[in-house]
Design a protein that fits this description.
The chain has helices spanning 5-8, 26-33, 90-133, 143-148, 156-169, 175-207, 211-224, and strands at residues 13-19, 42-47, 50-55, 69-77, 80-88. It is α+β, with helices and mostly antiparallel strands. The protein has a domain at 5-90 and 188-209: TATA-Binding Protein, CATH 3.30.310. The chain has a 5-stranded antiparallel β-sheet with strand order 1-5-4-3-2, covered by helices on one side. A hairpin with a 2-residue loop joins strand 4 and strand 5. The radius of gyration is 35 Å and the shape is rod-shaped. The termini are far apart.
Length: 233
């Protein structure tokens, strides 16, 4: 059976483009993107007009933490520069698989409950056949006990019914598994739409900042230093 992977890998991959406000060469564009890859666990390489990167166990503060692997390519279209990206996310893949896992747990619980009901039904049928063969003896209180107000003896049939109800309550409940499956499915849908948009916004913001402007801002922050403390009178 032939599987069309381009449709399947849309589950965890995102593709798109970012139009640049000004024409840039690949070197200029990748210089502006360089700060995004100067984080722990990040590695990247540039070949011509394409940048390939990977991130191992990125920190939560990393702006590209969701998409941990991919390529960025700069090309021209209609006289404008654009950055074309093709990235993948392990987090999105896990959020997609989590509902399937919990649905599997829920179906296993349903199957165990059905098996338990079938076994209990067979046992009850045998017990009913045995009880039908035995003559039922109704237990009654002695008149003197009734006069003294003693309680009536428990009906063994009612006692058995209570025990059966207790067993039913102790069966596996798949509700929580269904709830968790639905929760992770909603998280995946939100992330599948939101995360690519945030990724594009991060790239657009990084490409809009010139390296010299970023250095000047860092120098200004470093030169400002801590605010002076008032002298004690």
């Amino acid at each position: 059976m032939h599987v069309n992977l381009p449709y399947i890998d849309r589950i965890w991959r995102a593709r798109g483009e970012v139009l640049l406000d000004e024409p840039l060469t690949p070197d200029e564009a990748f210089d502006r993107l360089d700060p995004l890859f100067q984080t722990a666990g990040s590695a990247y390489a540039v070949e011509g007009d394409t940048l390939g990167y990977s991130k191992h166990n990125p920190a939560a503060q990393d702006k590209l933490a969701t998409f941990t692997r991919g390529t960025l390519r700069l090309d021209r279209q209609d006289g404008r520069s654009r950055l074309v990206f093709d990235v993948s996310s392990t987090a999105l893949l896990l959020c997609f698989l989590a509902p399937l896992l919990f649905l599997g747990f829920a179906q296993t619980m349903v199957a165990l409950n059905a098996w338990d009901v079938a076994g209990t039904g067979a046992v009850d049928a045998r017990e009913k056949d045995k009880e039908a063969e035995k003559p039922k003896v109704k237990q009654e209180l002695h008149p003197l006990d009734k006069l003294l107000g003693a309680p009536e003896p428990d009906d063994p049939d009612k006692k058995k019914d209570k025990e059966k109800d207790k067993k039913k309550k102790e069966k596996f409940d798949p509700t929580r598994a269904y709830v968790l499956a639905g929760l992770f499915f909603v998280i995946y849908l939100v992330g599948r739409v939101l995360e690519p948009w945030l990724f594009k916004r991060t790239l657009r913001a990084a490409l809009a900042v010139k390296p010299e402007d970023a250095e000047a801002l860092e120098d200004a922050r470093a030169g400002a230093g801590p605010s002076p403390q008032p002298e004690a009178g």
